[in-house]
Amino acid sequence: MKAVALTHYLPIENPQAFLDVELPKPTALGTDLLVSVYAVSINPVDTKVRSPKDIVEDIPRVLGWDASGIVEAVGPDVTLFKVGDEVYYAGDITRSGSNAEFQLVDERIVGFKPKSLSFAEAAALPLTTITAYEAFFERLGIDRDGANKGESVLIIGAGGGVGSIAIQLAKAAGLVIIATASRPETATWVTELGADHVVNHNQPMVEQVRALGFHQVDHIAILNDMRHWDTAVELIRPQGGIVTIDGTDQPMAMAGMKSKSASLHWEFMFARAMHQTPDMIEQHRLLTYVANEVDAGRIRTTVSEILAPINAENIRAAHALIETGTAKGKIVVEGF
């Protein structure tokens, strides 16, 4: 099968950063689906895994953790899907990725593709959808069906992939959304997605949020980096919650969190698959739920750019765009 892979971990400017290769077509066993990949999208995790390091892969390594496609074959223990089903998923960071014609993925972390979306539009959603859904509804304990209606949420770094779906999930749950964006085009983007207010995360945010009439906010999601930690601690209400997707080695002062009895949550959407948790199937359920919301017109795709076909040149181009740090929404690469 065709695949885009790497053997050396190189700067993206290096033409050898990704290679077009031929690899054996895998076989579905157990609860695995063999998916014929139609489209993939690129996330910051792709660029972090590919980033330069002194490692050489004896067997070409395939990256990619967002895909849509059609089930080609099923393992003997599969119960949720059948050959011919259209699916979308983010996969498992411990396994071979989606930048290949065919990929094995456990059915418990796969959802039925939204019927109203193309494969490219669907491929933009899985990883960011799982991340945002788990961050809000599982980590922070917000009710997706509106029991927390009217509460406020500050989404820091709202214009990126996770933020673009997080705004929509928060809107559907009835929250008042304060989104951050640092450029006019991303401010427009987050407003179109449903943000009620926009502030600039490159300027002092406490003053901006309070100027909007919010002395404190009920929930905070840090979706870019932890340099905003002190701001988040200052703005979170007593007994509120902060969730972040950013790992950090920087000091994080906790006295303000303790005095407010506030909570900190880490969200890592690969945790269930990586650790084979008993509730892995929850990712199947949430992806299927969101697909239904998309088909009902309540959530839209977050794709902002589509490249074609899936080859080393276009995967390199997509990585380069992500590494600028200025991409809005999701970048998708479609078709072999």
Automatic annotation (TrEMBL):
Q: Name one GO molecular function term.
A: zinc ion binding
- Pfam families assigned: ADH_N, ADH_zinc_N_2
The UniProt entry's GO CC annotations, sorted and at most eight, read:
cytoplasm
Whether Zinc counts among this entry's keywords is yes
Superkingdom, taxonomy of origin? Bacteria
Give the Enoyl reductase (ER) domain ranges. 12-333
**UniProt keyword annotations, A-Z:** Cytoplasm, Metal-binding, NADP, Oxidoreductase, RNA-binding, Zinc
Location within or outside the cell: Cytoplasm
Q: Which InterPro entries match?
A: ADH-like_N, ADH_Zn_typ-1, ER, GroES-like_sf, NAD(P)-bd_dom_sf, Quin_OxRdtase/zeta-crystal_CS, Zinc-ADH_QOR/CCCR
Q: Which NCBIfam families match?
A: adh_fam_1
- PANTHER family xrefs: QUINONE OXIDOREDUCTASE
The family this protein is said to belong to: Belongs to the zinc-containing alcohol dehydrogenase family. Quinone oxidoreductase subfamily.
User: What does the annotation say about its assembly with partners?
Assistant: Homotetramer.
Q: What is the designated name of this protein?
A: Zinc-type alcohol dehydrogenase-like protein
Q: Which organism is it from?
A: Reinekea forsetii
